[in-house]
Amino acid sequence: MTPQVEVERRVRLNRDRVLQAAVSLADEVGIEALSMRRLAQELDVVPMALYKHVENKEELLDGMVEVIVEEIDPPIRDTDWKSAVRQRVLSARRALQRHPWARQAIESRTNKTPAVLGFMDSFAGMLLAGGFSVDLTHHVMHAIGGRMWGFTQELFDDAAPVKGEAPVEVPAEVRAATVQQMQQRYPNIVAIATSRNHDDGSVVGHGCDDEFEFEFALDLLLDGFERLHERGWSSR
Amino acid sequence: MTPQVEVERRVRLNRDRVLQAAVSLADEVGIEALSMRRLAQELDVVPMALYKHVENKEELLDGMVEVIVEEIDPPIRDTDWKSAVRQRVLSARRALQRHPWARQAIESRTNKTPAVLGFMDSFAGMLLAGGFSVDLTHHVMHAIGGRMWGFTQELFDDAAPVKGEAPVEVPAEVRAATVQQMQQRYPNIVAIATSRNHDDGSVVGHGCDDEFEFEFALDLLLDGFERLHERGWSSR
DNA sequence: ACCTGAACACCGTTCAAGT
DNA sequence: ACCTGAACACCGTTCAAGT
Fold it and tell me: How far apart are CA A50 and CA A44, in angstroms?
C-alpha cells in the first residue's frame, strides 16, 4: 500500500542503533522503565530482534555504559597533571549528569568493557606523565574513582566469580596471550596491576587491599578538613 | 493432623520479621534476585500477605536500608572530632561490607527515612562539637558522603519531584509543623539546611550547588595528591 | 543473515473474598 | 485484623519457524 513508508521505518537494525536508542529511552523514562520489550517497541521491532545485536540485557547495559564513557573528553595535552586531571574528572562528571541513570548503571556493571579500560588507562597516563610513581598512581586512581563513581574498587581485582557458577578455568597459553594483548592496549593499567606482589611471579595481581585504599582516601580528606578548619575557611 | 507443627511455623508476621527476612535473603541471593514472591515463599506465606506490613517493594527497600543504617555504631564520646569521624566512617563501611547489596540499595533510594536522617544528624554533630562552623560542616558532609556512599548529594535538596507525578502541594501550616518536628529530631541537619540562602526567608533551603560540592572535594583530594607526590610518598 | 510468533517461567500489584 | 486466591499487565529469554 505505502511501500516507501514501509521502507523508511524499516531501517536496518544494528548494534549501534540499538545502543543509541537504549540511551535515549533511559534518558526519557529512567533506567528502571527500560525493558527489552519497550526498547523493541521504540525501534518498531519485535522484542527478539534485539537479541541478534546484543547477547542479553546485561550486555545491553554494558554497551550503554560504553556509549557514556566515550562521551568523556580525552586528556588535555600540554598542561600540568593537576589541571589535566581536574578537567578530565569534570568532563566525566558532565557526561554522567547528562544521563542521570548512568551512575547507577555503571555501579551495577561488573564487566570491564574496552571503553572503560581505555578511559582508566589514559587517566593513569596523565598521572604517570606528571612524574607520579606507579605506586602513588595506583592509590590515586582508587581515591579519585570514588569521587566520580563507585566502581573503581574492583578494577584491578581478579574477576569476581559469578554467583552460582564455577569460575571458568582459563588455559595458561590463553592467559599469556590475554596479558600480552592487555599490555598492548592498556600499558598503564598493566603496569599498575603488576607492580605489586611481583615477588611471587604472578602477572595478574591479587586484588587491592580495599581497607588500605579506603583509609588512604579517607585520611587525605580528613587532613584536608583539618587544614580548612584551622585556617577558618568559609565558602564565601 | 500435626497441629503443633502448624502452630510453630505460623509465627505471626510483622514488619520487623519481614525486613529481617528480606535482609537475610538479599545477603544470600543478591538484591537482583530478591522479589516479593520469593520473600513470601521464604516466610511460608502467600505474596500478598507481605503487603499488610509494607506498602510496596520500594518501601521494603527503604526498610532494609534502615536496618543496615541502624547497624552503624553511634559516635564515640570523649575524643577529638577527627578520630570520632574516622571511627564512625569505618563503622559505616563495615556495615556496608556485611551486606554487599546495601551500597546499590542506598544509592537507589530517594526517600530519607528516619534512621538515615538520624545518622546524618549525629554525624554533623561530631563536626559541630569539634568546633567546625555550620558552613564547613555542610561541605564536609558532602565530601565525606561521597566516600561512604553516593547519596549525600541530594540530602539537603528539596524532594525531587517524582517522574510523571505532579509535585504534591503541602499546606503552609503542615509545612511549618513538619519543620518544627524536624528541628526537634534533627537539629543539626536543620541548622545546616537553613544556614544558606536565609536572605529570602525560606526555611527549607534550595538544594546545594552540586558543582561547588563536587569541586570542593575534588580539590581537597588533588591538593592531597600533590603533597604526597612532592614528598615522594610510597605505600611501603 | 536477520526478523518473527508463540510459549515459558517469572515479576509487582489489584481486587474481592475468606477466617 | 490478618491472610488468601485468582487475575492483570507486565518482565527476560527459549525455541522453532519464516523470509
Answer: 11
